[in-house]
Amino acid sequence: MKKGLLTCSGGFSTTMMAQALDNITIPDGIKWDALGISAGGFSNDTFADYEIVLVSPQIRFRFNEIKKICDSKNIKCMQIDPKLYVATQAKQLYEEIKLELAK
């Protein structure tokens, strides 16, 4: 099974999004984890086990830093559109994720 990681400032909102995405993506073979990383909390190895890392709107200011690490490890990385960062939009968010994974 592939693994995806959602990142946010504290981990609470991404946990809810991870659960909503799991309901849709597990049948397609993707499981989601959540991680709060606002004040650091990650290193070059944090993302190593993931196919894709999603950056929440709360920490978009860290996107370039996270993307640089992901690029060095050939891991997909994308920012989550704020309009899609609610559990009720998980299906639409997954459509965006599939497009990114297909690149």
UniProtKB/TrEMBL annotation:
Give the sites modified to Phosphocysteine. Answer: 8
Any single biological process term in GO: phosphoenolpyruvate-dependent sugar phosphotransferase system
Residue stretches making up the PTS EIIB type-3 domain? 1-103
Q: Which InterPro entries match?
A: PTS_EIIB-like_sf, PTS_EIIB_2/3, PTS_EIIB_3, PTS_sugar-specific_EIIB
GO terms (molecular function) for this protein are:
kinase activity; protein-N(PI)-phosphohistidine-sugar phosphotransferase activity
Segments spanning the bilayer are none
Which SUPFAM superfamilies does UniProt cross-reference here? PTS system IIB component-like
Keywords assigned: Kinase, Phosphoprotein, Phosphotransferase system, Sugar transport, Transferase, Transport
Pfam families in the record: PTS_IIB
**Alphabetized PROSITE patterns for the sequence:** PTS_EIIB_TYPE_3
By its UniProt entry, which PANTHER family does this protein fall under? Answer: PTS SYSTEM N,N'-DIACETYLCHITOBIOSE-SPECIFIC EIIB COMPONENT
Protein's UniProt name: PTS EIIB type-3 domain-containing protein
Q: Tell me which species this is from.
A: Spiroplasma sabaudiense Ar-1343
Organism lineage string? Bacteria, Bacillati, Mycoplasmatota, Mollicutes, Entomoplasmatales
